[in-house]
Design brief:
Elements lengths: L2 H20 L3 E3 L2 E3 L7 E9 L14 E11 L2 E2 H4 L4 E11 L3 H6 L4 E2 L4 E7 L2 E7 L20 E8 L2 E3 L4 E3 L1 E7 L6 E12 L3 H4 L10 E9 L4 H5 L5 E9 L7 H21 L1
Antiparallel strand pairs: 1-2, 3-4, 3-16, 4-5, 4-6, 6-8, 6-9, 7-8, 8-13, 9-10, 10-14, 11-12, 13-14, 14-15, 15-16
Length: 276
Amino acid sequence: MNTFKKGLLAGAAALTLSMTAQAGNINVGGVIWDPEDGADFSSNTSLVEDQLNFNPAAGPIVDELTGFGIVNIFNGDLVGDFCPGCELTFQFGGFVVDNPATDIVTGDFDLLNAGLETFIGFTGGWINFYIDDTADYDSEVFASAGSEGAANALFLRLEAHEVFNAILGKDLSIGSILSSFGIGSDKGVGSSLMDAVSGLAFENFDTNEEADGADITFTSSFHPYSDQSQADVNGGYELFGSADLSGNSIGIPEPSTIALLGLGLLGFAGARKRKA
């Protein structure tokens, strides 16, 4: 076999390995998913969150959205399949109410559908996802969804991607529509765009392929506990619900694969030079 053919085969083998690394399942820190399986990236989560309060007479002012939860489904797979032997949890915070608090207290705030729904806008915000190799998530304990423990790794940090909102005429991170509002009665939905900024899976989700160049679309729904005494048991978080995330994800070749591809290309170059 002549030198050129050997170089050609070496390059082809390296290219095949590189393509294999990018196709099929992605494994980041033990979280496994196939970007070609159904939606490119989608997940469903369960969450609990704090009740907002803008009326000093009803208790401490709470104008920042905080909470935590666990990922139940990742690209159609249950946790035992996408995170075998581990769990993927998250904490969120920093979403601050932008509507004037005095307007909300007096009832003179933005209304939709002739007063049947309340719109609340937020600025800022973040979501941190953690890989935990111990299945110890507890919906009553905020810390159980975080980074406590040496084995817990930051899988992905998302930060709010603010966009112009026509209702308030300003940039917002979340727009939330509530069908009922007040202590013990908050119920509604929210939506947001998020950007990947760090974590083990940062490069896999830093795609800029959602609306306005964001990386992830985030939607949620929330309700009060039917028995508000449950909030005291549940670490003081009065609301529960779910959230869906969707977007695009990509496989990142391992450094060894990239190096092998480089060697294959050198084989091409060397063979061509010697033949000339």
